[in-house]
Amino acid sequence: MTDTGELTYRRVHAASPELLFDCMTDPEHLAHFWGPAGMTTPVENIVVDLRPGGVFETTMVNDADGSTHTMRAVYGEIRRPSLLEWVEADVQGGMRTRVTFTDLGDGRTEVVTHQTNVPEAYRSAQARAGFATSLDRFEHYLSTLDSKRR
């Protein structure tokens, strides 16, 4: 029996949907924030084939011991700049991640990450806290970008 559930994360960023979408789909951007605190993802460890059925793969490196964790996914629906979806078939239940970018009309964008078929281990408080550090790293990276790009 598979025990899966759902998770939803919401953040509002002072950036356009286009920039946020690009950050989530360009390895040069992703290398700056992909993964929880204590992990890095070198740009050469990121594969983005941005098309339905295309590969999305990242290999994070643990900063403390050098161990690695690879995430392999296949893109589903893609609508720039409002929607990005991928499925990790290797994760129990085939975890689906759907990221929506909603322009709030005032220079800010709401980003909602909704995951379904999430295994119990990914729903633990520790796992959710780790995911939240990834979102924090994304926010910090956005703050470093040239304000003209926002």
From TrEMBL:
Q: Name one Pfam family in it.
A: AHSA1
The secretion signal range is none
Q: Which Gene3D superfamilies match?
A: 3.30.530.20
Activator of Hsp90 ATPase homologue 1/2-like C-terminal domain location is: 15-142
Note the SUPFAM superfamilies from the entry: Bet v1-like
Which superkingdom heads the taxonomic lineage of this protein's source? Bacteria
Q: Which InterPro entries match?
A: ASHA1/2-like_C (IPR013538), START-like_dom_sf (IPR023393)
Q: What family name appears in the similarity comment? A: Belongs to the AHA1 family.
- The protein's name: Activator of Hsp90 ATPase homologue 1/2-like C-terminal domain-containing protein
